């Protein structure tokens, strides 16, 4: 079966580290083009891969492109995706899917009209810590789970001059980090019936949200997601509490750091777990049991995308699932702005 000719639109951290290594490394794909505003800036990084300055140009000059990966700033996702879909291309859109519900609904309808695969890159479904949490919950080891806590904290005191920290739609940590946790929450417990959000600008000079604390309410309990940029101490990535005990895991899945260090997905070191990472099950009597963390693998996402394109198999993360995250983002922002609990309208 011929590899899927692929173009990556945008070659910053996401395009170069979260997408290109898989497209280059996997037999299912062929990296045929890259699009950036200033091609000269990256030519030395990409060897003999053609670089273009616009999606329109690459679609015109390389019509055999089958798959387009959109890794541009979030506010541009809608317009770039619309152009690619109208050209009949399959699509992977970096999370978050779009800025607004209306944009997502239009792209979903357009993709159905043109019979193209449209997927959102929610790669954290393939993190080892999330897979471990899901396995423990499915096994019943925790009993009846009533509280799920997710934290994504960093210490970045200085406000940087970049679009993610500007006062524009789709910027700030709630659009950047929360989509990972909201998608995981939807996978674990489905749609919440209500949401309460608290968002702040904690750093001096901050123009966009740099802290959020959001509670998703369910009949069986609550999911709390939180992310900050002024947190020095390590906080649990997940804390799951049930009738038969609690599970705590700290630290982050190793794949991001490995990809940034240049480790390719086919390397033996890729996905190697930190055996010293805190991952414990705490029983009601206080005794502890070390839990082995499942090995994550983002390549599984790309394999499923290839299967969806070649064989018509299921899309690993559908556009509808990506849109569900945007609905929760909008509800969380409304809640924080109005200082009230918002009933989920999904």
**Class per helix and strand makeup:** alpha/beta
Strand order of the largest sheet: 14-13-12-11-7-10-9-8-15
Please give the radius of gyration in angstroms. 20 Å
Q: Helix count?
A: 10
Number of strands: 15
- Helix coverage percent of residues? 25-40%
The string of secondary-structure elements, in order, is: EHEEHEHEHEHEHHEEEEEHEEHHE
* Cα separation of the termini: 40 Å
Mean pLDDT: 96
Largest sheet: 9 strands, mixed
Strand content: 15-25%
Walk me through this protein's architecture:
The longest helix has 20 residues, at 319-338. This protein is an alpha/beta fold. The chain contains 10 helices and 15 strands. The radius of gyration is 20 Å and the shape is globular. α3 (77-86) packs parallel to α4 and α4 runs antiparallel to α10.
What descriptors fit this protein?
single chain; 346 residues; alpha/beta; 9-stranded mixed sheet; 10 helices
Question: In a few lines, what is going on in this structure?
Answer:
This protein has 346 residues and is of the alpha/beta class. It is built from 10 helices and 15 strands. The strands form 2 sheets. Strands 14-13-12-11-7-10-9-8-15 form a 9-stranded mixed β-sheet. The chain has a 6-stranded parallel β-sheet with strand order 3-2-1-4-5-6, with helices on both faces.
Describe the SSE topology:
Blueprint: E1 4-9, H1 13-25, E2 29-35, E3 51-52, H2 55-61, E4 67-70, H3 77-86, E5 90-94, H4 101-114, E6 118-121, H5 128-139, E7 145-153, H6 173-176, H7 178-189, E8 194-200, E9 211-218, E10 221-228, E11 236-242, E12 245-250, H8 255-260, E13 279-282, E14 288-290, H9 299-311, H10 319-338, E15 342-343
Parallel strand pairs: 1-2, 1-4, 2-3, 4-5, 5-6, 7-10
Antiparallel strand pairs: 7-11, 8-9, 8-15, 9-10, 11-12, 12-13, 13-14
Helix pairs in contact: 3-4, 4-10, 7-10
